[in-house]
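Page 37, continued from 36.
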């Protein structure tokens, strides 16, 4: 830091120059010159020409901004915080912006919020929002999604630009696809992951083109309750929503992505946490068409499934007193005396989700989709069993998937 004596001498020189120049333009030029000189000159100049220095902070070299910040100048502290955030030093940045954020105009606070969103500093963003320091902006809307605010509080214009929907009834089924899938989530990360899954599936449709069409991810916000333990199966409480939401009739299945939980499929509804990977997503899609797991099934399920005989799934044969199909191989699905068999000798996606979908299983899957005997349970059928009233709407279908 500059000494008090040197500060006085330098400030005297600056004051003399200011009197001689006698104009705002000249003082701004002098401040700019000092800001590019050295730290001591800049610190002294900031005391003399605070307005001119504040106006030029963004153009000063980083070492100068850092020196001014360390010497307690609020605007320099804030600008240095932004520099640190852009360099991914969020913890260090917080030490500076929290001292100066209340003194910043809306556009500066918006810059801060955008950088914090980019680095997913949600706790800091939530604190700023509670203090009313985040102006109306995309950053604020993004934070609302992360915190599962009511969908009514989300800007419809922001939702459209972000590639999400706020209402299920806005979704239109595709005639060209064998199945239409309604994608839902109650938080930002789920919406982002569903969009990523949709785009990946569009690039490489499985098991074939026009097998599945996926809706724009629909935001549910705080309108649905889901269990929060990541070690348990993902599970949301659907019954309160059944007659409150307009469910489009021509959709077959639901993919619901809460924050936490292991992937599972039940009655036309897939549920999986937002940390899930694409292989698990495909694995669960196959469950829609009746494929069974090829790892050891839960004991309760083995108790009834493994007592059956013959084909219990496209990929599972129970040899209960009869011979398995030629070329099929022992499966781990049934662990008792009665054995189960699967088509592939190698591991498949139905045994380990990290394994790629093989050509053999693509063929089996496509055949199952085309089979007239394949009648998967749709989510509206399940909802009808849970409630006497299901709010279903009819909509015209179109011929192209909506982006």
């Amino acid at each position: 830091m500059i000494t008090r004596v040197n500060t006085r001498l330098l400030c005297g020189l600056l004051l003399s120059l200011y009197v001689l120049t006698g104009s705002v333009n000249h003082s701004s030029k002098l401040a700019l010159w000092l800001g590019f000189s050295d730290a001591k000159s800049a610190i002294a100049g900031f005391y003399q020409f605070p307005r001119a220095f504040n106006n030029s902070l963004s153009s000063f070299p980083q070492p100068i901004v850092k020196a001014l910040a360390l010497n307690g100048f609020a605007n320099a502290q804030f600008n240095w915080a932004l520099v640190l955030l852009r360099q991914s030093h969020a913890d260090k940045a917080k030490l500076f912006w929290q001292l100066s954020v209340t003194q910043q105009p809306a556009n500066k606070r918006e810059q801060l919020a955008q950088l914090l969103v980019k680095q997913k500093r949600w706790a800091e963003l939530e604190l700023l929002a509670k203090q009313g320091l985040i102006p109306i902006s995309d950053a604020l809307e993004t934070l609302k999604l992360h915190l599962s605010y009511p969908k009514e509080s989300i800007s419809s214009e922001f939702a459209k630009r972000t590639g999400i929907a706020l209402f299920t009834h806005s979704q239109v089924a595709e005639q060209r696809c064998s199945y239409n899938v309604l994608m839902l989530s109650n938080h930002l990360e789920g919406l982002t992951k569903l969009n990523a899954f949709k785009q990946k599936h569009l690039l490489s449709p499985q098991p074939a083109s026009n097998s599945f069409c996926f809706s724009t991810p629909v935001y549910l916000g705080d309108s649905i309750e889901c269990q929060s333990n990541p070690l348990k199966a993902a599970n949301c409480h659907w019954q309160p929503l059944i007659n409150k939401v307009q469910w489009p009739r021509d959709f077959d299945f639901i993919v619901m992505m809460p924050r936490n939980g292991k992937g599972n499929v039940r009655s036309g509804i897939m549920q999986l946490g937002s940390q899930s990977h694409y292989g698990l997503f495909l694995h669960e899609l196959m469950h829609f068409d009746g494929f069974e797991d090829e790892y050891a099934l839960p004991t309760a399920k083995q108790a009834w499934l493994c007592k059956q005989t013959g084909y219990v799934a496209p990929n599972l044969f129970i040899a209960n007193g009869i011979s398995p199909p030629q070329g099929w191989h022992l499966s781990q699905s049934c662990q008792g005396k009665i054995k189960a068999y699967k088509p592939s000798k190698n591991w498949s996606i139905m045994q380990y989700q990290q394994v790629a979908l093989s050509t053999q299983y693509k063929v089996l899957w496509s055949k199952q989709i085309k089979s007239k005997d394949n009648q998967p349970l749709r989510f509206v059928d399940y909802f009808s069993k849970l409630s006497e009233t299901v709010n279903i709407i009819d909509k015209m279908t179109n011929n192209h998937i909506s982006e």
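The chain has four domains: 1-71, 89-147, 168-289+377-393, 299-366. Flag for discussion at group meeting. Residues 1-5, 7-24, 396-403 have pLDDT under 50 and may be disordered.
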